[in-house]
Amino acid sequence: MLEAIFQSLIDRILEVQNSHKDSSDKDAMLSRNWEFIFSDFDGWVVLYCFTLEHAGGYWIYPMLCPENNVGSLKEQLPSFSIDLASAAYHVMGGDEHWLEPCWGNPEDFTKSEIPLFFYRQYYGYRKGKENYHEFNQLVTHPLDLHWSATKNSYCRLDGQGDAIEKIKIIDHEKVSLILIRRRTLDTLLHLGKWVLVRYFAFKRFRIDSPSFSSCTSKQFEPTEYEAKFEIRTCADEYIEFRGAQFERPQTPKDQLLSWSRGGEEDEEERYTEFIVVDRKNNKLLQDYSIDPRNFANYFTESDLPFEISPIFFKAEVLDKYKNNPDKYALSERNISCRGGWYLKTYDINEHNQVHTYAVYLARLPYKEQLHWRQYNEEPKGGISKRAFRTDFEAKFSDERSKLELLKECLERLGGLRVGEERHVIWSPKGGSWDSASKGLHYVNSENPNQWHDFIIALANVTNEGFQIKALRKIASSLGNDDERLRTLGLIKFILQASNNEERIQTIHGVLNELQKRRGKGKAHGSWDTPKGSLIEDANKRLQDVIYAIEESIQVFGALEIPTQDNG
Questions:
Q1: How far is CA 182 from CA 44, 45, 140, 253, 256, in A?
Q2: How far apart are CA 87 and CA 108, in angstroms?
Q3: For residue range 155-194, what is the model confidence (pLDDT) as tens digits?
Q4: What is the pTM of this model?
Q5: Pairwise CA distance, residues 511 & 487, whole Å
Q6: Which of 438, 353, 144 is nearest to 265 (CA)?
């Protein structure tokens, strides 16, 4: 369903092109009520318009004209001719073949009109989608626009990492429209030193088959907007308005293209208030704005709190980022949003509180600050030992996180070459640790969803990496003939056959229990969580898995596989 602003525009187009038929005004045919199409519509500008079912009505086609050529173009109006089949033409003369760009000399953008898009046709697409508009890369590349089939628009990511429509293509049953956001258009015009030229023709018929034997023409240059067009009248049966309208940028260049602003997507700088630990003055500041002007650094003499004053949050503040790994990259110490913001550092203290510093929180978009604000709370203790060591003592942390240990163990397991055939028994799912560990985060709250996600991700990063073909060959060489055994069953058999039965529980038992929990998780439609603290369970389970992988390295690294008797 179309948004209200677009549906309203279509309704008005259809109304205007037929309004003369219902009007009692004797001059209804000459009415210029169609000129509203050159206005802005809630921040959108019409680039292209074609009424599909009517011989009369609108036709608008846009071109980019160098600023210096507007005067000479006006002299040619209302005469114009547009036939843009493609960006370049295959030209031949005799046995010679070459390409020529449709807009003339490609080395001189200051003279040639340039099309914004091309009308393409490809019968390899499904029925009804054979015809489409392909935008010129001179438009999409500088503006960093990308096609979204779901939105039927060219989009770009905003500061929140969300796809925002910038060029909208509407294929209505009666009207074909292409619109562009005003600030996007103005950015393009400033960049290329262009003026948007909208060639247009608007026609009205009093009868279906008018006579064109006696027609008169008059030229107009309206004062309400920049344009030049001809009104051609044939008796009282046919009226045509034909010419071009010129659209110059309305947004000042320094608001769109300056070093002080990241681009047209930037919102007004705003800051919210938090509970801030003022370490300099040894007090707790309630509802204190994180506006950078309210803080000072170590080198400034001031009573203002340090810019690295800590701010504390409930652990649930991270759930938003854990639940959307395609949009957010959440590591142990920083968070980033695709194409958007970046939180340089955060950590979790012994009271399971997330903490970061005012200076970094203030760099987030205002909407993101509001997300953090709702989880803000007073500190239950200090910052983590790791954060103090890295952020204040400028030293490398002497703590090894469990996820770091897990990654290191799995890399060593993947590096093993077992037996004379040098079997690879483990390889990360998806080909890399980053791919395999996507969605693997610590459990910091008693939320069952978070715990289940952790179990699924932990199983994916460990169990799913074991190579069943290699394990089956190893087990076969040790005497296994049961083809029904799967990955964990093969590991259990190998442990038994290699006199490592005492490790069955620490390796097979731990990994098998993890797989069972995964099978009972939400991925398979049932819910089952252990009793007690889910945080403690996740921490212990992660530690047990690390130990199981370390033990596996010992077993497979020392494994002696009997030589196959081929006689």
A1: 5, 6, 15, 13, 11
A2: 16
A3: 998 888 888 999 999 988 889 999 999 999 999 999 999 9
A4: 0.72
A5: 10
A6: 144
